[in-house]
Amino acid sequence: MSEPQYSREELRSAAARIYQEMPPTPQYAWPLLQNRFGAEIWLKHENHTPTGAFKVRGGITYMDWLVREHPEASGIVTATRGNHGQAQARAARNGGLQAVIVVPRGNSLEKNTAMRGFGAELIEYGQDYNEAAEYAGQLAAERNLKLVSAFHPAIVQGVASYGLELFDAAGALDAVYVPIGNGSGVCGTIAARDALGLATKVIGVVSDRAPAAKLGFEAGQIASAGKANTFADGVAVRTPDTEAFEMYSKGVDHIVMVDDDAIADAIRIIWQDTHNLAEGAGAVALAGLIAENAQIKGQRVAAILTGGNIDQSMVAAVLAGQTPLS
Questions:
Q1: pTM of this prediction?
Q2: C-alpha to C-alpha distance for 326 and 322, rounded to whole angstroms
Q3: Which candidate, 288, 282, 272, places its Cα nearest to that of 314?
Q4: Residue 221, class by beta-carbon neighbours within 10 Å (0-12 exposed, 13-18 middle, 19+ buried)?
């Protein structure tokens, strides 16, 4: 366990703010998963939030911070592959602010529609998340908007609430598997674990098509993968956020890498054993757990199902036994 960066009190306070807008999400130890893998496996169902993904938590606490600390702000701009953008658009709307969201070309049509549904102005730019993020920075200066990074202390405090809920319900788990994209999810889990003083291992999971977090962790410094073309778009990051990397590189036990076939298989297993729908990034954690099945036999472990926002055409292909092309 690493030294706590956030106190139990500030995380509980952030959670209380979140519960003004949404209830806690469930976590279940599914018997069919236990039978399949020989371990007590809990899934934390972040697909059951007002935006269908865990990012809504950080959106609430970030916007609460923004309106208090920067009352002069008239709007925000941010880059996303979808779930962060939905969270920020929803929070901005509730706070009476404009939201401009930049997505890469070819982004999920249904996530784009959802962001517009929350009132965002949507702009398509670049070939991947990192190019979209660079353009969002330009727009912030041009339009005098507050640039929102996908990683910020107020976001981590909010995201940590799912960790508090999981640990409160399941107790002292042996390990929790968490996907790593921009890092708020894994850092929120670490923050909750450390604030509660638990010895639970936090294990990060990445796609082999977006391996920057694992490469950097093993090298001991930030590394850029030069690619991020997995269909699990929530983890499709070429270069990690510096602050996030600083936290999770110290707080995770290790990082597992899985391929897109394994992610697609995990979506099917989640559907078969729990009748919950996971998007690609939402199934990454379970894919990592499955990859380490031999090591977790007989243990009490959890996987964060981070979201269920997958396009209809893509889920149809996955459930038919295919792996979508990125």
A1: 0.95
A2: 12
A3: 282
A4: exposed
